[in-house]
Amino acid sequence: MSSSKFLEIEEESFETFRLEAAWWRCHSCLRRVVIKDEGYTCKDCKAICEPVRIKARKTRFGFGSLIEDVAQATTGTASQQISEQCINIEYTHTEYVSHKFVPVTTIKQLGHGSLGVVDAVRFNKSGDGALIARKVIRLPTFSRKNLLPLIQQEVNVLRSLTHQHIVRVISTYETTKAPRDYGILIFPAGDEDLGHFLDRVSESDFPEKEMKLLSGWQCCLASAIAYIHSRNIRHKDIKPNNIICKGDKIYLTDFGSAHQFSAGITSSTDGPLVGITKMYSAPEVIADDRRGRPADIYSLGCVFAEMATVADGERVEEFHEYRSQPIPDESDRMTYVYHATAHMIGPWFTELGDPWMASLLQEMLAVDPKRRPTAQNLVETLLRHYGPLKCLCLQRV
């Protein structure tokens, strides 16, 4: 198929949800190519635009595979076009004068922080299509030069990850008029985060349909962590609020970006604990020691403890109360951060009649990082206990 025909099909198929870019960067010579002047072929090195190059081949993601040929794409309704296959659309970056010109409609706010907001949006051309999450980061004039490379680095990390249970960056944009913003469009927008899911299930008297999801979700999360660790990437901030639920699917999001951006420093093996969540942090992170992939396993163990608590028919709030300990030198105050109360987790699950989970968490929450299982070993242990699961992320385990 000729590149012109390929582009014609691409433009027709993806028009409803693709931000129209004014330029693209050649992946070969890195030159900025203005579309209206040169189209989709770099005049210097003759390389074809990245979307054409990528979509012309079979795409693999996670441990499963998805075969998609753009030549077979057809124009359908917006809700059909923005679907689970949105995970495979090409990445674009666009500049707008201000946020008023960004062609999306805000549906609801999902969260906010010191750096900006996260909301659920739809592309204006998509009608009633699927929701996309948008993270908008404010770029103060005095810190933009240092902040922007960190944001772009985080975007590049997420773009390099293709797994069924990791959110995908599908587009970014920057506004050029003060106050300047950097927007990141992420698929999918979750229905709720895991913390809210666990609370809702508890308040609804533990409905069987939702309860059945938890064991499979543990395997899927372990699979996602095994995937990023195999690529020498650490999450660095695993907690229920950084895990989103969409229907019966679960996704990792926010790869430690918040503390990198707010601190204005690059990600490193050493360094102070800045802005990350102490509640779920490993002891070596709290102590500012060198930390690596085992720190992710510790944090995941904390999340598993809360998931298993609900799976065993108890509320997370009661689990926290059971573990709470007096704060040293402040006997009138209590804490339930995991690094200070991990010794209470085994007895909790023993009392619940779940000694297997007590044993697993003892390994994941070991004080010595070297004693914790790898993510891949964890996946294998979970599958031996729960039995075969249908999710594609586990096909190659």
From TrEMBL:
Keywords: ATP-binding, Kinase, Nucleotide-binding, Transferase. Residues 104-388 form the Protein kinase domain. PROSITE patterns: PROTEIN_KINASE_DOM, PROTEIN_KINASE_ST. It comes from the Eukaryota. InterPro entries: CC_SR_Kinase (IPR050339), Kinase-like_dom_sf (IPR011009), Prot_kinase_dom (IPR000719), Ser/Thr_kinase_AS (IPR008271). GO terms for molecular function: ATP binding; protein kinase activity. SMART domains: S_TKc (SM00220). The keyword ATP-binding applies. Gene3D superfamilies: Phosphorylase Kinase, domain 1, Transferase(Phosphotransferase) domain 1. SUPFAM superfamilies: Protein kinase-like (PK-like). One of its GO terms (cellular component) is cytoplasm. One of its GO terms (biological process) is negative regulation of G2/MI transition of meiotic cell cycle. Belongs to the protein kinase superfamily. Ser/Thr protein kinase family. GCN2 subfamily. This is Protein kinase domain-containing protein. It comes from Monilinia fructicola. The lineage of its organism: Eukaryota, Fungi, Dikarya, Ascomycota, Pezizomycotina.
